[in-house]
């Protein structure tokens, strides 16, 4: 019974990981479709600008619709060499770095 439970749990974890990877691929496809349709800079261009502003490793990327200012931002979560997490915002139309904030949690 313990073996069956362990196999079931490991299968559940593997399925969760596979779904997360599939969702990440869907997010990237959705960002690409949105950016092309709206005439925004590409995810690759925005990633390069974010890493230029805050060197490290990108852990997550989102394309966000700004509520009040009208327009779109790429939001990147970047981990630097010291293990600090940062949020870097790139204007999706112009490619300008919007703001850089340290994530404190």
UniProtKB/TrEMBL annotation:
Alphabetical keyword list: Signal
Keyword Signal listed? The answer is yes
Signal peptide stretch: 1-24
InterPro entries in the cross-refs: PepSY (IPR025711)
Q: Does the keyword Hydrolase apply?
A: no
Q: Which Pfam families does UniProt cross-reference here?
A: PepSY (PF03413)
Which Gene3D superfamilies does its entry note? 3.10.450.40
Report the residue ranges that make up the PepSY domain in this protein. Answer: 41-97
Name of the protein: Peptidase propeptide and YPEB domain protein
